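Entry 14. Structure prediction run on the chain below.
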Amino acid sequence: MSSTLPASLERLIDELGRLPGIGPKSAQRIALALVARGPEAARRLAEAVTGAIEGLRRCERCGQLADERLCPICADASRNQHIVLVVEGDRDVWAFERSRGYRGTYHVLGGVISPMDGVGPEELAIASLLARLEHEPIEEVVIATAPTVEGETTATYLTRILAGRVRVSRLATGVPVGGDLEYVDELTLARALEGRHPVSAPQPEP
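Output returned:
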Protein backbone atom coordinates (compact mmCIF):
# COMPACT_ATOMS: atom_id res chain seq x y z
CA MET A 1 0.00 0.00 0.00
CA SER A 2 1.22 3.48 -0.80
CA SER A 3 2.74 5.34 2.16
CA THR A 4 1.05 8.53 0.91
CA LEU A 5 -2.29 7.31 2.29
CA PRO A 6 -3.40 8.36 5.78
CA ALA A 7 -2.53 5.59 8.24
CA SER A 8 -6.15 5.19 9.41
CA LEU A 9 -7.38 4.81 5.82
CA GLU A 10 -4.62 2.34 5.04
CA ARG A 11 -5.63 0.22 8.04
CA LEU A 12 -9.26 0.23 6.89
CA ILE A 13 -8.31 -0.82 3.36
CA ASP A 14 -6.07 -3.56 4.73
CA GLU A 15 -8.85 -5.00 6.91
CA LEU A 16 -11.39 -4.89 4.09
CA GLY A 17 -8.91 -6.64 1.82
CA ARG A 18 -8.79 -9.59 4.22
CA LEU A 19 -12.44 -10.40 3.46
CA PRO A 20 -13.07 -13.15 0.88
CA GLY A 21 -13.73 -11.93 -2.64
CA ILE A 22 -12.45 -8.40 -2.02
CA GLY A 23 -9.27 -7.47 -3.86
CA PRO A 24 -7.09 -4.39 -3.30
CA LYS A 25 -9.03 -2.14 -5.69
CA SER A 26 -12.40 -3.20 -4.28
CA ALA A 27 -11.10 -2.64 -0.75
CA GLN A 28 -10.06 0.89 -1.71
CA ARG A 29 -13.46 1.68 -3.27
CA ILE A 30 -15.36 0.35 -0.25
CA ALA A 31 -13.11 2.23 2.18
CA LEU A 32 -13.61 5.52 0.34
CA ALA A 33 -17.37 4.92 0.18
CA LEU A 34 -17.48 4.32 3.93
CA VAL A 35 -15.52 7.48 4.62
CA ALA A 36 -17.80 9.48 2.33
CA ARG A 37 -20.92 8.25 4.13
CA GLY A 38 -19.74 9.79 7.37
CA PRO A 39 -19.43 8.78 11.05
CA GLU A 40 -23.12 7.99 11.64
CA ALA A 41 -23.27 5.49 8.77
CA ALA A 42 -20.00 3.96 9.98
CA ARG A 43 -21.47 3.51 13.47
CA ARG A 44 -24.57 1.81 12.06
CA LEU A 45 -22.38 -0.55 10.04
CA ALA A 46 -20.20 -1.34 13.06
CA GLU A 47 -23.28 -2.03 15.19
CA ALA A 48 -24.74 -4.30 12.49
CA VAL A 49 -21.51 -6.30 12.23
CA THR A 50 -21.14 -6.61 16.01
CA GLY A 51 -24.81 -7.49 16.45
CA ALA A 52 -24.65 -10.25 13.85
CA ILE A 53 -21.46 -11.78 15.22
CA GLU A 54 -22.60 -11.67 18.84
CA GLY A 55 -26.28 -12.46 18.30
CA LEU A 56 -26.32 -15.19 15.68
CA ARG A 57 -26.51 -18.83 16.68
CA ARG A 58 -27.22 -22.16 15.00
CA CYS A 59 -30.82 -23.33 14.68
CA GLU A 60 -31.32 -26.21 17.09
CA ARG A 61 -33.20 -28.16 14.45
CA CYS A 62 -31.60 -27.62 11.04
CA GLY A 63 -28.28 -26.02 11.93
CA GLN A 64 -28.47 -22.86 9.84
CA LEU A 65 -27.78 -19.39 11.19
CA ALA A 66 -30.60 -17.90 13.24
CA ASP A 67 -31.39 -15.16 15.75
CA GLU A 68 -33.57 -17.41 17.90
CA ARG A 69 -33.58 -21.03 19.03
CA LEU A 70 -35.24 -21.97 15.73
CA CYS A 71 -34.67 -20.31 12.36
CA PRO A 72 -37.68 -18.75 10.57
CA ILE A 73 -38.00 -21.78 8.26
CA CYS A 74 -38.09 -24.35 11.07
CA ALA A 75 -40.52 -22.13 13.02
CA ASP A 76 -42.88 -21.96 10.03
CA ALA A 77 -45.59 -24.60 10.53
CA SER A 78 -46.75 -24.18 6.92
CA ARG A 79 -43.55 -25.75 5.56
CA ASN A 80 -43.75 -29.37 4.42
CA GLN A 81 -42.46 -31.35 7.41
CA HIS A 82 -42.16 -34.60 5.44
CA ILE A 83 -39.18 -33.62 3.29
CA VAL A 84 -35.70 -32.44 4.24
CA LEU A 85 -33.18 -30.91 1.85
CA VAL A 86 -29.64 -31.63 3.02
CA VAL A 87 -27.15 -28.93 2.03
CA GLU A 88 -23.52 -28.10 2.76
CA GLY A 89 -23.94 -24.61 4.18
CA ASP A 90 -26.11 -21.58 4.83
CA ARG A 91 -25.58 -20.04 1.41
CA ASP A 92 -27.12 -23.13 -0.20
CA VAL A 93 -30.28 -22.64 1.87
CA TRP A 94 -30.49 -19.02 0.71
CA ALA A 95 -30.00 -20.11 -2.91
CA PHE A 96 -32.92 -22.55 -2.75
CA GLU A 97 -35.10 -20.03 -0.96
CA ARG A 98 -34.46 -17.53 -3.75
CA SER A 99 -35.66 -20.12 -6.27
CA ARG A 100 -39.06 -20.19 -4.48
CA GLY A 101 -39.47 -23.78 -5.67
CA TYR A 102 -39.06 -25.58 -2.36
CA ARG A 103 -41.38 -25.52 0.66
CA GLY A 104 -39.90 -28.27 2.83
CA THR A 105 -37.31 -28.00 5.58
CA TYR A 106 -33.50 -28.05 5.48
CA HIS A 107 -30.56 -29.64 7.23
CA VAL A 108 -27.18 -27.90 7.10
CA LEU A 109 -24.21 -30.28 7.27
CA GLY A 110 -21.63 -27.58 7.90
CA GLY A 111 -19.35 -28.77 5.11
CA VAL A 112 -18.50 -31.93 3.18
CA ILE A 113 -16.39 -34.99 3.80
CA SER A 114 -12.85 -34.08 2.79
CA PRO A 115 -10.05 -36.35 4.08
CA MET A 116 -7.44 -34.01 2.59
CA ASP A 117 -8.71 -31.27 4.89
CA GLY A 118 -9.19 -33.57 7.86
CA VAL A 119 -12.99 -33.43 7.67
CA GLY A 120 -14.73 -36.73 8.29
CA PRO A 121 -18.39 -37.64 8.90
CA GLU A 122 -17.95 -36.93 12.61
CA GLU A 123 -17.21 -33.27 11.89
CA LEU A 124 -20.49 -32.82 10.01
CA ALA A 125 -24.05 -32.54 11.37
CA ILE A 126 -24.95 -36.08 10.37
CA ALA A 127 -25.80 -37.40 13.84
CA SER A 128 -28.36 -34.62 14.28
CA LEU A 129 -29.90 -35.54 10.90
CA LEU A 130 -30.32 -39.14 12.04
CA ALA A 131 -31.87 -37.89 15.28
CA ARG A 132 -34.39 -35.88 13.29
CA LEU A 133 -35.43 -38.99 11.42
CA GLU A 134 -36.26 -40.61 14.76
CA HIS A 135 -38.41 -37.73 16.05
CA GLU A 136 -39.92 -36.05 12.99
CA PRO A 137 -42.38 -37.31 10.33
CA ILE A 138 -39.74 -37.17 7.61
CA GLU A 139 -40.51 -39.30 4.56
CA GLU A 140 -37.85 -38.12 2.10
CA VAL A 141 -34.32 -36.78 2.36
CA VAL A 142 -33.06 -34.90 -0.69
CA ILE A 143 -29.27 -34.77 -0.86
CA ALA A 144 -28.25 -31.43 -2.33
CA THR A 145 -24.49 -31.38 -1.94
CA ALA A 146 -22.57 -29.71 -4.75
CA PRO A 147 -21.45 -31.90 -7.68
CA THR A 148 -17.78 -31.78 -6.66
CA VAL A 149 -15.61 -34.73 -5.66
CA GLU A 150 -16.14 -33.94 -1.98
CA GLY A 151 -19.84 -33.32 -2.49
CA GLU A 152 -20.30 -36.63 -4.28
CA THR A 153 -18.33 -38.44 -1.58
CA THR A 154 -20.61 -36.93 1.05
CA ALA A 155 -23.73 -37.83 -0.95
CA THR A 156 -22.58 -41.43 -1.31
CA TYR A 157 -21.89 -41.69 2.42
CA LEU A 158 -25.29 -40.23 3.30
CA THR A 159 -27.05 -42.53 0.86
CA ARG A 160 -25.39 -45.53 2.49
CA ILE A 161 -26.30 -44.67 6.09
CA LEU A 162 -29.82 -43.49 5.25
CA ALA A 163 -30.72 -46.57 3.19
CA GLY A 164 -33.64 -48.41 4.76
CA ARG A 165 -34.49 -45.52 7.09
CA VAL A 166 -36.15 -43.13 4.67
CA ARG A 167 -36.63 -42.45 0.96
CA VAL A 168 -33.45 -40.83 -0.36
CA SER A 169 -33.16 -38.74 -3.53
CA ARG A 170 -30.50 -36.66 -5.22
CA LEU A 171 -30.76 -33.46 -7.23
CA ALA A 172 -31.34 -34.08 -10.93
CA THR A 173 -28.96 -33.09 -13.70
CA GLY A 174 -28.86 -29.44 -14.56
CA VAL A 175 -26.51 -28.36 -11.80
CA PRO A 176 -23.07 -27.97 -13.42
CA VAL A 177 -20.38 -30.44 -12.41
CA GLY A 178 -17.60 -28.82 -10.41
CA GLY A 179 -19.70 -25.77 -9.53
CA ASP A 180 -20.98 -24.35 -6.24
CA LEU A 181 -24.73 -24.20 -5.64
CA GLU A 182 -24.58 -20.57 -4.52
CA TYR A 183 -23.59 -19.54 -8.06
CA VAL A 184 -26.30 -21.54 -9.84
CA ASP A 185 -29.22 -19.51 -11.16
CA GLU A 186 -32.68 -19.89 -9.62
CA LEU A 187 -34.30 -21.56 -12.64
CA THR A 188 -31.61 -24.26 -12.81
CA LEU A 189 -32.00 -24.96 -9.09
CA ALA A 190 -35.78 -25.18 -9.38
CA ARG A 191 -35.58 -27.61 -12.32
CA ALA A 192 -32.96 -29.73 -10.57
CA LEU A 193 -35.18 -29.95 -7.52
CA GLU A 194 -38.26 -30.88 -9.54
CA GLY A 195 -36.30 -33.59 -11.38
CA ARG A 196 -34.75 -35.23 -8.32
CA HIS A 197 -34.54 -39.00 -8.43
CA PRO A 198 -34.31 -41.81 -5.89
CA VAL A 199 -30.89 -43.29 -5.12
CA SER A 200 -29.87 -46.56 -3.55
CA ALA A 201 -26.92 -47.44 -1.39
CA PRO A 202 -23.87 -48.78 -3.29
CA GLN A 203 -23.42 -52.53 -3.03
CA PRO A 204 -20.27 -53.66 -1.19
CA GLU A 205 -17.53 -55.07 -3.38
CA PRO A 206 -17.22 -58.89 -3.28
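The chain has a mean pLDDT of 90.
Filed with the rest of this week's runs.
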